[in-house]
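Lab notebook, page 48
Experiment: co-folding of the full assembly
Goal: obtain a model of how the components sit together before planning crosslinking
Operator: M.T.
Materials (sequences as entered):
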Amino acid sequence: MKSFEGIAASSGIAIGPAFHFHRGDPHFERHTVTDPAAEWVRLTTALETAQRQIAEISARAKAESEEGEADIFAAHALMLEDPDLLETMQQAVKGQSLNAEAALQDATENYAQMLETLDDEYFSARAADVRDVASRVLRILLGIAESPAAGLMTPSIILARDLTPSDTVLLDKSLVLGFCTAVGGPTSHTAILARSLGLPAVVGAGPEVLEIPPGTTLALDGDAGTLILEPDETLIADYRRRQQTGTRLLAQARKDAHAPAITRDGHRVEVVANIGNAAGAAAALEAGAEGVGLLRTEFLYLEHTHLPDEEEQYQAYRAVLEAFGSRPVILRTLDIGGDKDLPYLDLPHEVNPFLGFRAIRLCLARPEIFKPQLRAALRASVGGNLKIMFPMVATVAEVRAARAILEECRAELLAEGQPVAKDIEIGIMVEIPAAALLAERFATEVDFFSIGTNDLTQYTLAADRTNALVAALGSGFQPAVLHLVRNVITAAHAQGKWVGLCGELAGDPLAIPILLGLGLDEFSMNPPAIPLAKQIIRALTLAEARKIAQHALELDNPQIIRAWVKEQLEAQIK
Amino acid sequence: MSQITLTILHEMGLHARPAALFVKTAKQFDSDIRVTYGNRKANAKSILNVLTLGAGQNAVITIDAEGDDADEALAALQALIENNFGDAG
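Observation: model returned without errors.
Model output:
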């Protein structure tokens, strides 16, 4: 059986025939024209036709409630009437007597290439939009009408170089089993669309996938990132079983979302939510959150044009605490500065913001920012179950300094006659290797740790998580990161302190067995991940998880670790 | 010439829907409107120009306008950005 490896872009399994979605590159000759004025009319007429087509497609996307897509078409429509683009094309046609096709191609390709060179992946992905628009106009100019989706009659796995929004809107989604593209990354349109439709997708599988004969039976694994040609009966049976297990598991998980996460041998862990504001509280509770493991407080600062005062903050924290009643809510103090700028703070520009003046470093230096937040949190603590944690801690001295300011605020409030809850637990985020390595010293200073694996990973691997070129290095499954996590948990437990984890790893089904086995006490994740996380914990015993963790930490790289955990998990969940 | 400096807080940055709204708003005015981000400068009425700025979340941009309705244009663009392009925080 031949197989292709790509990037796992959307979870799930599909088995079915290959269907090529092939647009075909419209060919044209570059030449000069004898009547430039007429040629310009030909081009503007094609632009108008394209404008009408986009309006129709946009209406269809809205009807299929693909809201994100409708937005993309609004941008496409603006590109067609872009004054700079029109001027460049007009100059080429009228000034240089170039034919419409060549003028269009030159002008749009220039912009597409400029977009491609931008560092930000979201912006560089817009190059595909410009080419999509250009190709539409080109097809109109050349009179090519046939839809590339014509011929899709039976449920199939769609193979394509890459898919654009105007391509996918043409597809009858009820006939799509999954997607596999030759190019593209995890933030490509195909990946985003597949996830929103709940269909499996593998992207960036290489140009050879375009050579697969149409109708060939394929097995697509959106979790492993593989596409297998002509799978044998054993493999098909295996995939079908996994497909059914996945569906059944998720249905069961949703049904039991509000039940606690207790392993088969009776070990209970907490499954809580990462939320950004009071509005997120309702969704978290509905998903089965047993509390909040990370309340990001940045929103309050980002949505204002001035520093939010104590009273504004008090009201916001109060609202979240009230929604959760007696369940714990861990408030993370302001994590801003560096790459997250607030214009009204007037912070200096930094060359290397991730290693810069941010979070607790900024707060300790600017008590006029830090103290109102701490006072608001302390006031909101009455009647709720509030815990406070400090982000980006690197040294024990920082913890002591932050705690001293907190105590100062508490004393002030009590002196003013304002009530404050007793015994508020204080913790730190462990996201800098310095804190992870010396966890045993930090453990004597705090009540709990919350490991922030997103930052811990980028600092440990020295791989900027916003840089696509090194993104592959920055996996939380890197053995170095997992060893640090183990060190933190062991050190905390030795001193009777508990440990949570609020990075993306906590909600990753393949990381959960490892983290459970390492002894993690609290898993904090985005609310939609909660039901399945609980279900995975329930399917295991602590003893099994320990074995999985122990072996996983001896393996060499993230791919091998994921594959191994997956195998173990599938053996448990039949 | 009038000028304002603002921070893009929208998580998408000046891209996709925010970029489209920004350009549509700019087009309602007769003034010449330019956006500067870092060392790049763009015509605010050109979506392709605005996209190639690459202004992501938390980018600090400067908008200047020249013309009879320059102040109104800047006020409208400022309101759009400060209201986070109509999205909740």
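Interpretation: Residues 6 and 78 of chain B are 8 Å apart (CA to CA).
Next step: discuss with group before ordering constructs.
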